[in-house]
Write a structure and sequence with these properties.
The structure is a single chain. This protein has 116 residues and is mainly α. The protein has one domain. Helices cover 68% and strands 5% of the residues. A hairpin with a 4-residue loop joins β1 and β2. α1 packs across α3. The longest helix is centred in the last third of the chain and has 34 residues. InterPro entries: NTP_transf_5 (IPR039498).
Amino acid sequence: MNHRIAALEFISQSISPNYSPKTIESLLSFIDSKWAHWEYVAFLANTHLVTPALWAGLNHKNLCNQLPKDFRTYLAELHRQNTVRNSHLMRQLLEVLQKLNQNNIKWCSKSNALSL
């Protein structure tokens, strides 16, 4: 099997909500196989902006401890940084909404436009 296809299948199965025994077995098989080119998995996940989702998916499937330590540490750190970033973005959004509300500017959901 091509290592690129194997990496892409690993990523897609990891972030999928499918928790079937067949999916878990396939993921474990990849982790233990010669097809596990972790640098390429990281490259693909980063390129497609799914690295935090990769960690979350593997974590929900209880497979993080099966990963090589360096790769596991890398994914966990990127997920942590993404969580911090999302917290900052949420705080900024709430500040903007508060300012809009203070100035009596409301969001019109039907037209997706701001109104005064």
